Amino acid sequence: MELKHLSEEIEAISKGYAEKYAIERDATWFLLKLQEEVGELIQSYLMLAGKARKKGKTPEELQAAFEEEVADVFCQTLLLARLHHIDIEEVVKKKWLYWKNA
């Protein structure tokens, strides 16, 4: 799936969620929401790695929760980039893929 199309779909879902719960999605919200999701990712990783309470979850549930939190961080990153009109594919090419041929 192309990132631009994916970003558009994620934006529609995020916007609908915000409207349903009367959340103002301003620049601060996008950044803090990303931080919140990173915190949840860390928590799920610690549980998966046996460095935090597992809260009665099975290994499969812990793995699934970790994967979902990675997706949340990815989606919030796309939303933040979209808000700031960042062509994430181009920036990744310049910042990361540059090293492929270096």
Automatic annotation (TrEMBL):
Top-level lineage group: Bacteria
Keyword Cell wall biogenesis/degradation: no
Keyword NADP attributed: no
Start and end residues of each NTP pyrophosphohydrolase MazG-like domain: 33-94
Molecular function GO terms recorded: hydrolase activity
Alphabetic keyword roster: Hydrolase
Signal peptide: none
InterPro entries, sorted: MazG-like_dom (IPR004518)
Name of the molecule in the record: MazG-like nucleotide pyrophosphohydrolase family protein
